[in-house]
Amino acid sequence: MKRLSEERTKTLFEKLSKYIGPNVKALIERPDGLYCFREKKDRVYYVSEKILNLANTLNQDQLVCAGTCFGKFTKTNKFVLHITALTYIAPYAQCKIWLKPAAEQTFLYGNHIAKSGMGRISENTERYSGVVVYSMSDLPLGFGVAAKATAECKHAEPMATVCFHQSDIGEYIRSEAELI
Fold first, then answer.
1. pLDDT of 74 strictly over 70
2. Mean pLDDT score of the chain, rounded to an integer?
3. What is the torsional sign of CA 8, 12, 15, 18?
């Protein structure tokens, strides 16, 4: 596993700051030790330095990965965040949307969020900012991009899209169904 280049590190941190703002530093300097991002075959992994030191003792050809996959770089050098990063990003999220129980299933099927399905939205959410989508019981369900600002959501029509779907925890089930 190799270090990310300066350009890729910048791209990764820009994507993460879209969702968690200045809390990116809190991901790296945690109370249980230092963490870092490493790359293998265009995938970015989030790993503690203790585990990384142990992984460096292995032959790199025999090592599949170490840590949690946060996402991957596309061929055009854009970073796509994977759902496996949700548990690490959710506690630091600045913009949140909570879904009504009736709308959870449609979001988990990969659909955008309509205003009628939105339970509430955090204050000061700007248009096109990254949001973490929660159930009303504060269970993180996935990522999205705000289609409307908080003020616009209050006056929007019930069927207007308020959040564009990016990724959700239902992907595990959908990807299994594709393999069968």
1. yes
2. 88
3. negative
Provide the domain count of the chain: 2
Paired tokens of 36:
């870092």
Task: Report the largest interatomic distance among the alpha carbons of the chain, rounded to a whole angstrom.
Answer: 58
How does pLDDT run across 96-124, given as a tens digit for each residue?
Answer: 999 999 999 999 988 999 999 999 999 98
In the structure encoding, which two tokens stand for residue 42, read together? 């265009």
User: Which backbone phi and psi does 58 adopt, to 5 degrees?
Assistant: -90, 160
Residue 51 and residue 123 in one domain: no
**Which residue, 99, 119, 120, 110, is CA-closest to 175?**
110
The pLDDT value recorded for residue 177 is: 55
Q: How far apart are CA 74 and CA 79, in angstroms?
A: 6
Residue 81 and residue 138 share a domain = no
Domain that holds residue 51: 2-88
